Amino acid sequence: MKRILFLLALVTSMFVASARDSYSYDVNTLPVAARTILKSNFKAKVNHIKIDKGLGRVSEYDVVLTDGSEITFDRAGNWKEVEVARTSSVPKGLVPAAIATYVKQNQSKANIVGIEKEHRGYTVELSNGIEMKFNSDGKFLRYDD
User: Fold this and answer.
1) How does pLDDT run across 78-136, given as a tens digit for each residue?
2) Strand runs (DSSP E) across the chain, as ranges?
3) Confidence of residue 2 (pLDDT cuts 50, 70, 90)
4) What b-and-e string marks burial along 44-71, b requiring 16 or more CB atoms within 10 Å of the CB?
5) pTM
6) Cα distance between residue 137 and residue 102, in whole Å
7) What's the CA dihedral at 66, 71, 72, 78 to 10 degrees?
8) Residue 79: how many CB atoms within 10 A of its CB?
9) Which three-class secondary structure state does DSSP give residue 82?
10) φ and ψ at residue 91, rounded to 5 degrees
11) pLDDT at residue 83 in the model
């Protein structure tokens, strides 16, 4: 019984050790797709990158830019979430056209300051604090609390 408990503890500690996050300041640690998105959509430089690991491999990259913007990428370099300052806007190249049009028509005084890709669509946060849900085609679904 003691051997089984010892082996279980050993295996558990190996998983915990391999799940540690790491940090980088080198943009080249990101996948090419993520570097391309950053280069073509953001003027600010990378401040730091948190590399989230699960079971010994990268699960996502959390990038913080020098202007405070935060972008989360999956392990392939596809963006999952973008947040910018309330006085700024998420770059147009990252917002689906249907969502941008709907927001412009229905919340014309607000900027999109956050967007998150979800399993079945998008959540958008506006500078006035309103959150909106859209389906994967960019069709408005509802306001969110």
Assistant:
1) 999 999 999 999 999 999 999 999 999 999 999 999 999 999 999 999 999 999 999 99
2) 22-24, 46-54, 57-65, 70-74, 79-83, 112-118, 121-126, 131-135, 140-144
3) very low
4) eebeebebeeeeeebebbbbbbeeebeb
5) 0.82
6) 12
7) -120
8) 20
9) strand
10) -55, 140
11) 98
- How far apart CA 42 and CA 81 sit, in angstroms, is 14
- Return the closest-CA partner of residue 122 out of 132, 112, 109, 107: 132
118: Cα within 13 Å, side-chain hemisphere: 13
Q: What tokens appear for 8 in the block? A: 């279980």
- 46-54 sheet: strands from edge to edge: 22-24, 46-54, 57-65, 70-74, 79-83, 112-118, 121-126, 131-135, 140-144
Q: Yes or no: say if 25 and 50 are a contact pair by the CB < 8 Å rule.
A: no
Residue 101, strand partner residues: none
Fill in the amino acid letter for 35.
R
Residue-level pLDDT at 19: 53
Write down the residue that tokens 């935060």 correspond to.
Answer: 70
The DSSP H or E segment spanning 7 is helix 2-18
Q: For residue 48, how far is the Cα from the chain centroid?
A: 14
